[in-house]
Amino acid sequence: ILFVPSNEVTDSDVRDYYEDHRAQILEPTKVRTRQILFKLAEDASETDVLDVTGRAVKVLELAKAGKDFAALAKKYSDAPDAEDGGDMGYNKEGDMIPEAEAVAFKLTLGQISDTFVRSEFGLHILKLEDRVPASIRPLTTELIDELRASAVTDTHSELARQRAQRVLETLHDF
Fold first, then answer.
1. What's the sign of the alpha-carbon dihedral 92, 39, 45, 117?
2. Is this prediction's pTM over 0.85?
3. Which of 30, 73, 95, 108 could bridge to 77 as Cys pair (CB 3.0-4.6 Å)?
């Protein structure tokens, strides 16, 4: 049952909702990372592990020596993003595979991972390209429109709770 039509939730109500729910409107920290992936099955033979690790060590040394990381990714990476220089785009926590995320969010700007990140896909070399710190989204017209539905839902929930409480009180009086 709808108690309040959505057009009865004013912009002022939405602004109040925004102020009361700022933590939920937080834009999380995001990192832009590049990777060079060397595919290696989790059950790879010892020979394959040595071969892939040897290639990865050579590329890591080139990257640490200042060679262009994107060019190295294009040349050596087995990842789908290799043609884009290993650019994984901007990711917030929870977007990346856990093994890569654990390293990526600890890197400093421009830093290349000191060791390989081992995942189900193989060995990754990571480089942090950019970090966007967490922030509160500004209250724009677009955000007001997005929040209006949440404010309406919260208003309906509160009215339903109040109505249910009155019904319980009435039943209790019997």
1. negative
2. no
3. 73
